[in-house]
Write a structure and sequence with these properties.
The complex is a heterodimer.
Chain A lengths: L2 E8 L2 E8 L4 H8 L18 E4 L2 E4 L12 E3 L13 H8 L9 H14 L5 H7 L11 H10 L5
Parallel strand pairs in A: 1-5
Antiparallel strand pairs in A: 1-2, 3-4, 3-5
Helix pairs in contact in A: 2-5
Chain B lengths: L22 H5 L15 E7 L5 E7 L1 H4 L4 E5 L1 H4 L25 E2 L5 E7 L2 H8 L3 E6 L6 H6 L11 E6 L2 H13 L2 E9 L11 E7 L3 E6 L4 H12 L6 E4 L15 H13 L3 E4 L2 H7 L6 E9 L5 E13 L9 H5 L10 E9 L14 H17 L3 H8 L8 E2 L5 E2 L4 H11 L2 H13 L3 E13 L11 E7 L5 E5 L8 H13 L6 E4 L17 H28 L6 E4 L2 E4 L7 E2 H10 L13 E6 L5 E13 L6 E11 L6 H21 L29 E5 L16 H18 L11 E3 L4 H9 L6 H4 L37 E9 L2 E12 L2 E8 L2 E11 L2 E8 L5 E10 L2 E7 L5 E8 L1
Parallel strand pairs in B: 1-12, 8-29, 10-11, 14-15, 20-21, 27-28
Antiparallel strand pairs in B: 1-5, 2-4, 2-6, 3-5, 7-15, 8-13, 9-10, 9-12, 13-14, 16-17, 18-26, 19-20, 19-25, 22-23, 23-24, 26-27, 30-31, 30-37, 31-32, 32-33, 33-34, 34-35, 35-36, 36-37
Helix pairs in contact in B: 11-19, 15-16, 18-19
The chains are: A alpha+beta, B alpha+beta.
The complex binds FE2/S2 (inorganic) cluster (2 copies).
One FE2/S2 (inorganic) cluster sits at the interface of chains A and B.
Pfam family, one (chain B): Ald_Xan_dh_C
InterPro entries (chain B): Ald_Oxase/Xan_DH_a/b, Ald_Oxase/Xan_DH_a/b_sf, Ald_Oxase/xanthine_DH-like, AldOxase/xan_DH_MoCoBD1, AldOxase/xan_DH_MoCoBD2, AldOxase/xan_DH_Mopterin-bd_sf
Protein name (chain B): Xanthine dehydrogenase family protein molybdopterin-binding subunit
Chain lengths: 157, 917
């Protein structure tokens, strides 16, 4: 198995590592760098739990290899809140609206919504809901996630 | 119950949408799930699983796999057998199938674990697992319930493929059929429920670390660390103090993680053998195909009604697929116990069976008995259509309302405070049914098909004291010397938010800020035994225990403050973390000040009072606390495509005191989403060779945000009789959801005909093609061609008595030796609903009269007045536990064995066998 040297920035911290070519980005972030907030729930690209932001784009870290992230800027759920701990508005909206129960799907949901809002701070509920099509949550029935989306769009939750 | 006593301050936390304590760690990626555990020297496990459904293992070749880089060991059952294991059910009764941790000479389903590879990384373990060579002499598998009835034995040492059975066949002819024959209307309905994969988002996971001499710390995705620790100690025959189970965060359980199962127990056994920490993380393919499954069942219900729509009698024939290795052999007796206690039904009888097949074993899933609501509510709607009665009216005629209570059902369930009728009235007062009917009629003219389903149900929650693992709950609350509050609980959250709700109760009852309370749970080293999340019980039982423990602590605070201020206890109140004395504002002290005195200055405390500020309470609630609800769902069915769109869903539920509406609604919503998945999307199909066909989330369709509407809630709450007045709410949505949606769809399709066609057999999920079967009145789905025959409906003929498959090696049955004496001791086994019970039966005869006793470690029951005639033995034993029932034995002596049955009141009839002791 070939090994590769990579360098990347995760949540503002620079990391250098040697990885096997086959190591997935999600696995690398979790096992090598300790960003265990990224969850792997299907490892085949359907559930969205593993979503991280790579160079500004929401990516499924189970479908991307660590080597492909060489030179990239990655944001995981650990990097969403402000350095003083203040929640990102997506995190706040999810908490305000009981948008999570077990929290296993939540990191991916939060990264996707934060990325939609980063691209378009006045994204509509329709746009944010459409982005949720790539996320499975077994616990909440999506009620709190949908209310959080409404709150983020400035509507009545 | 006065659940807002005056001793505490004005600030209310119970009933508030308080933000969850769990969220800050889970939203920032700082949760601690099992896969987040990394230990020095930890190795990784991958299982090699059987690719065939049934066969004899001829050989296993590990040579190539062992040579792979990073491989440390490969174990088969022969290795693991060094530590003997007796697998148990959730009820702590031995599993009756010959289940072992890894396959023992035979495989009985696809996914059966055969070898365990231990390697330095997960990838290395998987690489090696792929190179294990197995030769299996493949046999034709039994896949369906119909296969099980006629095919060869799944477990060759068993008498038949019946894993469990209850009920009384004779009752149909003796009691029910005569009533049905006289009934002006008889309606029969069949439902075949597909197989479900429970699919929590976090798959199963286990890390086992052997510490010190014979101790083991286990991190595990479970529903109760206490239950997991007790289970592991029991099946491994170890003292419980040697095992500690930690589960801080678990990504959903839903019944799947009720007990540690083969793979988790194997990790613990292997860690002992290997002597180093081991980690196993199930992947989604394993989770879908090999975790365990749920719900595959078929039931036919027949009801008789009078001209007004009043129920006269009912009979049902139920069967469920137990797979090869169920997590407890199950005939689902609870379906029958809870089908009718909320209805005025004069007579009900049933037969119920679980069948072994060569498929993945049956496990738990939210509301395992949910079929009672699904078959009852869909049959009632069908009857309403047949009789031309409004379905709401039909329910009003038959439901038990509050003024009718207390009343005891034919199955012996006493209800004292159920409110399905009251929930229904609140529902219809808030939903304009007449306007909907008008809209529906208009829409039909335009070729749009709207439907409304309305259902009611009741659910037993917070069960305690009648089954081994279902216990009360201990809570310890303490005010630290810092004035902050700490609580130690045996609760466990796989998303339930118990740290939040329990902190709310403490804040409310103690008069302290929610932020000042820390709740510790999720560790078998904290608190006392509790089954955690099982049977919708934590809000009820842990809530009640927390309520009372906190009030005891508040009493102590007030006693100390009264003593210090020379005031009467009644004059002391606590609010916002301050202790006030009425009429003496200068005497107000912070809890911190008071705590410093209580811990550090014993001389200032009342004579004889223990120092410190803490209280502990163990709450044993009533045996069951009932939750009731009525739901309404509105759908539109697209007659072109067969797609169903859910337009509205309203829940009117009575869940007693609501601690946190956000949490309660979250539980209902989660269950309803699973219900929608079951009715419309999810299915784990098997092919004829026993291969599970949904291997990814592209094949196994989980509900997405677009499949689930906004749910509306009408809280119709009445406090229960428990401390605090809570009622359980964890499973309800998954129970009442399916019939509500099926009824709405059936209503929409009524212009075309009955859902399930002329035969009246509804098969789930209601895929677009199955809905087109009704709309186009032809076999679009291709389902009917493949359908296996269902159990015969009662009014047509007696229920089909399954022909027990005969073991090829079975010896001819000896002729009854009536003359043999029965006197003396017998080892008797009663196949009870919660697993087999074994005890010693002692008989003494005098002529034809019989007396004796039944003796088990739990106690001895004497009986007399029995008879023995021609080897036929009849006697009765009255028992008080789990409830008052009379056990009526009717058994036959044949040489040195006894076989027969025992009628167990509400539990139906159980098989009895005995051999001479
Ligand atoms: S784990 Fe990546 S999409 Fe499911
Ligand atoms: S919160 Fe549990 S899966 Fe979404």
């Amino acid at each position: 198995m070939s090994e590769h040297k990579i360098e990347l920035t995760v949540n503002g911290h620079r990391h250098a590592a040697t990885v096997e070519a086959r190591t997935g980005l999600g696995e690398f972030l979790r096992e090598e760098l300790g960003y265990t907030g990224t969850h792997l729930a299907c490892e085949h690209g359907v559930c969205g739990a593993c979503t991280v932001r790579v160079d500004g784009v929401a990516m499924r870290s189970c479908l991307m290899l660590a080597v492909q992230a060489d030179g990239c800027e990655v944001t995981t759920v650990e990097g969403l809140a402000a350095p003083d701990g203040t929640f990102h508005r997506v995190q706040q909206a999810l908490q305000d609206n009981f948008g999570l129960q077990c929290g296993f799907c939540t990191p991916g949901v939060a990264i996707t919504l934060a990325t939609v809002l980063q691209d378009n701070p006045s994204a509509t509920t329709g746009e944010m809901e459409a982005a949720m099509s790539g996320h499975i949550c077994r616990c909440t029935g999506y009620q709190g996630i949908r209310r959080a989306i409404r709150q983020l769009a400035g509507e009545n939750a | 119950m006065n659940f807002h006593a005056s001793s505490v301050g004005a600030t209310r936390y119970v009933g508030e949408r308080t933000p969850r304590k769990e969220d800050s760690r889970l939203l920032t990626g700082r949760g601690q799930f099992t896969d987040d555990i990394q230990l020095p020297g930890m190795m990784h496990i991958a299982y090699v699983r059987s690719p065939v459904a049934r066969g004899r293992i001829v050989s296993i070749n590990l040579e190539v796999a062992r040579e792979m880089p990073g491989v440390q060991a490969i174990y088969t059952q022969a290795d693991l057998a060094a530590i003997p294991v007796q697998m148990m059910s959730f009820f702590f009764t031995p599993i009756e199938s010959p289940v072992s941790l890894l396959a023992d000479g035979r495989v009985a389903c696809v996914g059966d674990p055969v070898c365990m590879v231990i390697a330095e990384t997960r990838a290395m373990a998987e690489d090696a697992a792929a190179l294990v060579e197995m030769e299996i002499e493949e046999e034709t598998p039994l896949v369906t319930i119909a296969d099980a009835k006629t095919g060869p034995l799944v477990h060759p040492d068993k008498d038949d493929n019946i894993a469990a059975e209850m009920g009384d066949e004779d009752m149909l002819e003796e009691a029910i059929q005569p009533l049905l024959d006289k009934a002006p209307h008889v309606v029969t309905h069949t439902i075949r429920h597909q197989r479900i994969a429970q699919s929590p988002m976090e798959c199963r996971a286990c890390v086992a670390s052997p510490d010190g001499s014979g101790e083991m710390t286990v991190w595990m995705g479970c529903q109760s660390p206490h239950l997991a620790a007790r289970y592991l100690a029991l099946v491994l025959g170890l003292p419980q103090e040697s095992i500690r189970v930690i589960a801080k965060d678990v990504g959903g359980g839903f019944g799947l993680k009720n007990i540690p199962w083969r793979e988790e127990v194997a990790v613990v056994v292997a860690a002992r053998l290997f002597g180093r920490p081991l980690k196993w993380i199930e992947d989604r393919y394993e989770a879908l195909t090999a975790s365990s499954h749920a719900r595959e069942q078929e039931v036919t219900l027949t009801i008789g009604l009078d001209d007004e729509g009043k129920l006269l009698a009912a009979w049902s024939d139920y069967a469920c697929n137990n797979g090869a290795w169920p997590m407890g052999e199950d005939a689902n007796i609870a379906v029958h116990m809870f089908m009718w206690p909320a209805h005025k039904l004069p007579a009900y009888g049933f037969v119920t069976r679980g069948w072994y097949t060569n498929t993945m074993g049956l496990g738990g899933y939210r509301g395992p008995w949910a079929m009672e609501s699904l078959i009852r509510e869909t049959t009632l709607d069908k009857a309403a259509r047949k009789l031309g009665i409004d379905p709401i009216e039909l329910r009003r005629k038959n439901l038990i309302y509050l003024p009718d209570q207390p009343v005891t059902s034919g199955m012996g369930i006493e209800v004292t405070d159920i409110t399905p009728g009251e929930c229904l009235e609140k529902l219809v007062a808030n939903v304009d049914v007449a306007a909907f009917r008008k809209e529906q009629a208009e829409a039909r003219k335009e070729g749009r098909y709207l439907g409304m389903g309305i259902t009611t149900y009741i659910e037993p929650t917070g069960s305690a004291g009648s089954m081994q693992p279902m216990t009360g709950e201990t809570v310890h609350v303490r005010i630290e010397p810092t004035g902050k509050v700490v609580a130690m609980l045996s609760t466990h959250s796989q998303g339930h938010g118990t740290a939040t709700t329990m902190a709310q109760v403490i804040a409310d009852r103690l008069g302290v800020a929610y932020e000042d309370i820390s709740v510790f749970e999720g560790d078998s080293a904290i608190g006392a035994f509790s089954p955690g999340a099982a049977g919708s019980r934590q809000g009820v039982i842990a809530g009640g225990a927390t309520w009372k423990a906190t009030e005891l602590l508040a009493d102590k605070v007030r006693a100390v403050a009264a003593h210090l201020s020379n005031a009467s206890v009644d004059a002391v109140t606590i609010d916002g973390g301050m202790v006030h004395v009425e009429g003496a504002p200068e005497m107000s002290r912070s809890l911190k000040e008071l705590a410093e005195i209580a811990y550090g200055e014993p001389g200032r405390l009342p004579e004889g009072m223990a120092t410190g500020l803490e209280a502990q309470f163990r709450y044993q609630p009533p045996p069951m606390t009932m939750t009731s609800a009525a739901h309404c769902c509105v759908v539109e069915v697209d007659a072109e495509t067969g797609f169903v769109k859910i337009l509205r869903w309203i829940s009117s539920e009575d869940c007693g005191t609501v601690i946190n509406p956000g949490v309660v609604e979250g539980q209902i919503a989660g269950g309803l989403a699973q219900a929608i998945g079951q009715v419309l999307l999810e299915e784990m199909p098997y092919d004829a060779r026993g291969n599970p066909l949904a291997a990814t989330f592209k094949d196994y369709l989980m509900p997405t945000i677009f499949d689930v509407p906004d749910f509306e809630y009408l809280h119709a709450n009445t406090p229960s009789q428990t401390i605090g007045g809570m009622r359980g709410v964890g499973e309800g949505g998954a129970i009442i959801g399916p019939p509500t949606l099926v009824n709405a769809i059936a209503d929409a399709l009524s212009p075309f005909g009955e859902l399930g066609g002329k035969k009246g057999e509804v098969t789930l999920p209601l895929t677009p093609s199955r809905i087109l079967d009704v709309i186009e009145q032809r076999d679009v789905s291709g389902h009917s061609a493949h359908a296996a025959p269902v159990p015969a409906a009662a009014p047509v003929s007696a229920p089909a008595v399954p022909e027990a498959p005969v073991a090829e090696t079975a010896a001819p049955v000896p002729a009854p030796a009536a003359s043999a004496s029965i006197d003396g001791d017998w080892d008797m086994t009663l196949k009870a609903p919660m697993g087999g019970q074994t005890f010693v039966a002692h008989f003494e005869t005098q002529g034809t009269s019989l007396s004796g006793y039944l003796s088990a470690p739990e106690g001895q029951q004497d009986f007399s007045g029995g008879t023995i005639e021609g080897g036929r033995i009849k006697f009765e034993v009255k028992v008080d536990k789990p409830m008052k029932i009379t056990l009526k034995y009717d058994i036959q002596l044949e040489g040195d064995t006894i076989t027969g049955k025992c009628k167990m009141g509400m539990f139906g009839t159980a098989k009895v066998t005995a051999v001479r002791a």
